Amino acid sequence: MGQGSEVTSRYRVVVVGMGKRGMHHATAFAGNPRFDLVGICSRDQKRLDGATAKLANVRTSTDAGALARQTKPDVFCFCTPPGVRLPLVVMAIDIGAKLIAFEKPVAITSVEGMAIKRAIDSAGVKAVVSHQHRYGEHYKKVKDIIASGAIGKVHLVYGTATGWAAHMLSHLVDYTMWFNDYEPAEWVMGQAAGRGKLSDVHAAPDYVAGVAHFRNGVRGIYDCGAGAPDVPEVQYWWRKCRIGAQGTEGYAEVHTGGGWRAVTRQGVQCGPGGMDYEHDMAPYVDQMADWLDDDAKPHPARFARAYQGLEIMSALYRSAIEGGQIGLPLTTGVDEIDGLRARVPDRKVLMTLTESGREYQE
User: Fold this and answer.
1) Residue 224's closest CA among 244, 236, 240, 245?
2) Closest by Cα among 237, 235, 268, 239 to 251
3) Residue 129, CB half-sphere, CA atoms under 13 Å: how many?
4) How do beta strands 75-78 and 59-61 pair?
């Protein structure tokens, strides 16, 4: 549908995976007048029964392929563990979905990420990855300050989180790239420690840190996992995330679990804000309909941007495996998790926060 056309379409949606995030997505689609939630799926019958009690008049199944073939959705959304990505992307393409929406990270390894990219690009299907924190008012405020020029010319972006990389690093990378207008990264260098989470369903080293150099000269600094610094402004461990930018005339940063602050020529500024799925999911879903209506309105969380982030994450891992700088874009895919299992020293990770001992091996 062309720009300026009257919008009348309603889009059929199937959501696969009925954990916490799957329910967030299903509820948001069900509550949006632009979408018809026609099916939900989970291999866990108990979860499926619980979701059915909250979502009326929706077809259910424990078989995602059968459900998709029966309902023929325009939007195929899946919220599954990160080890299940490529088969569901291929399934969505095969049943003719117009848009695929899925959880971050894009993939756990670059070899799978590249295969997903080839499939999506070859099919010409739209795809969106759930970096939805950007819709928080505190995130938008920091972006507005940076974009206004109030901190001068940006020369550094940074992100820290106490949660491990498979959960948190793609968020840190995506929002710092947003603050830097998604300039491509040219090279990355990193290091990793701790083997405990390499066997987790969200596989990653316990701690990864490093730098990325972007084409416009901006430097990115990332510090994620057991050794990451505290964010004392935030009490809840999972939301101890600090993401920001420094410029020639100041800085601005957001704390996922506790507001924002900035220092500019106008002085010290700060404000409230906190992660809120109910608030953030609504515009995330709205903009899927906008993009389906009009190719000239691409989704802010589109796959192409998330794939840039996957390359940076993968390059941080490869640098820890191989040593030295890793040039981007990547030209070949590898299984970085296997590489990290072989190279990360088998010794206890050193933790910054005592409370991190609940999540990492002590």
Assistant:
1) 240
2) 268
3) 25
4) unpaired
Residue 54 amino acid letter:
K
* Beta-carbon contacts of residue 346 (< 8 Å; ≥ 6 apart): 195
For the chain, domains (ranges, CATH) are: 11-132+279-302 (3.40.50.720), 137-275+310-343 (3.30.360.10)
Tens of pLDDT, residue by residue, the chain (362 residues): 444 444 557 999 999 999 999 999 999 999 999 999 999 999 989 999 989 888 988 999 999 999 999 999 999 999 999 988 999 999 999 999 999 999 999 999 999 999 999 999 999 999 999 999 999 999 999 999 999 999 999 999 999 999 999 999 999 999 999 999 999 999 999 999 999 999 999 999 999 999 999 999 999 999 999 999 999 999 999 999 999 999 999 999 999 998 999 999 999 999 999 989 889 999 999 999 999 999 999 999 999 999 999 999 999 999 999 999 999 999 999 999 999 999 999 999 999 999 999 999 75
Q: Are 40 and 100 in contact (CB under 8 A)?
A: no
For residue 21, give both structure tokens: 């995030």
Q: Which residue type, as a one-letter code, is found at position 52?
A: T
